[in-house]
Write a structure and sequence with these properties.
- It is a single chain.
- The chain is of the alpha+beta class and 293 residues long.
- The chain folds into 2 domains: 157 residues, Ribosomal Protein S5, domain 2, CATH 3.30.230.10; 119 residues, Alpha-Beta Plaits (2-Layer Sandwich), CATH 3.30.70.890.
- The protein is built from 10 helices and 10 strands.
- Strand 5 and strand 6 form a beta hairpin.
- Helix 1 runs parallel beside helix 2 and helix 6 runs antiparallel to helix 7.
- The protein is globular.
- The protein starts with a strand and ends in a 7-residue tail after the last strand.
- The relative contact order is 0.19.
Length: 293
């Protein structure tokens, strides 16, 4: 009997993102704080009689060949263990495509975790982290999720207990806007913005304490300097949420997703009312403790 496994693949946001000099391997050195959310894709893994990897997705914008990170994750896993079999990967998308929320990376992480269970491979989290480095920079974090400070190109992780109770997260994505992560980093100019290393530690402490007043005035994303210049509608969404006044607001990753952190659903819903729903897609979610898989 062919086996089937269904998993959730949670999105993430960057509570702050400090982008430094480009490394010799072509990546930028980063310091960032990442938080997983209740917003997730659904991944179904199903063994097939036909050999090879197949990908199906309900969103036509998603590639279904080797350009898909979920496909790549299955390739990496099967090659590592010398497994030759047929696999169908079905992806139900809820995470905005090219939205700066690790949608492709988290699908890949779900596949990696799922295949370890499906084929009963006793991989430790450290083992999976090593495998994930061949897939993408965000994959090591979303393998576990929750809250983590990351450095290097995003793979050096220190995990922390997320805020309790969870914060509400309003996500606003301008319709029709997709931002290429590669384009964003290629156009970023390191050194234009000076950062105090102590600020990042202060942001982490304030975030875990749910100090939204401090976060509102201090969280930052260096990639806003690139994305906002080309995509004025992304900057406009952030300005609208900032002017509403009750949340800590930031663009996630390379954008175009903009999120606000709020103490309760009422605050988040009120903030959403300041946006034109004909121009943005809205999601109301919460921060997550991770370890979904």
């Amino acid at each position: 009997m062919k086996r089937t496994l269904i998993l959730q693949a949670p999105a993430k946001v960057n509570i702050s993102l400090w982008v430094k000099e480009k490394r010799t391997d072509g990546y930028h050195e980063l310091t960032t704080l990442m938080q997983s959310l209740t917003l997730s894709d659904t991944i179904t893994l199903q063994e097939t009689r036909e050999e090879g990897i197949q990908v199906e997705c309900d969103n036509p914008l998603i590639p279904v060949d080797s350009g898909n990170l979920a496909y790549k994750a299955a390739q990496v896993f099967f090659h590592h263990f010398g497994i030759n079999t047929g696999l169908l990967i079905r992806i139900q998308k809820r995470i905005p495509v090219a939205g700066g929320m690790a949608g492709g990376s988290t699908d890949a992480a779900a596949v990696l975790n799922g295949l370890a269970r499906l084929y009963d491979r006793g991989l430790t989290m450290a083992d999976k982290m090593k495998l994930s480095l061949a897939i993408g920079s965000d994959v090591p974090f979303v393998l576990r999720g929750g809250l983590a400070a990351a450095s290097g190109r995003g793979e050096i992780l220190t995990f922390f207990e997320p805020p309790r109770p969870p914060l509400f997260v309003l996500i606003a994505v301008p319709k029709g806007v997709e931002v290429s992560t590669r384009w964003c980093y290629e156009n970023y100019r390191p050194g234009l913005i000076k950062r105090d290393p102590e600020l990042f530690s202060e942001i982490l402490t304030a975030y875990r304490r749910r100090d939204l007043a401090f976060l509102r005035n201090n969280i930052f994303n260096d990639l806003e300097s690139v994305t906002f210049k080309r995509y004025l509608e992304v900057a406009a969404v952030k300005d609208a949420l900032m002017n509403e006044g009750s949340g800590a607001v930031l663009m996630s990753g390379s954008g175009p997703s903009v999120f606000g952190l709020y103490y309760d659903r009422k605050q988040a819903t009120k903030a959403a009312s300041c946006l034109d729903i004909s121009k943005v897609n809205l999601f109301l979610e919460q921060t997550s403790r991770g370890s979904h898989f």
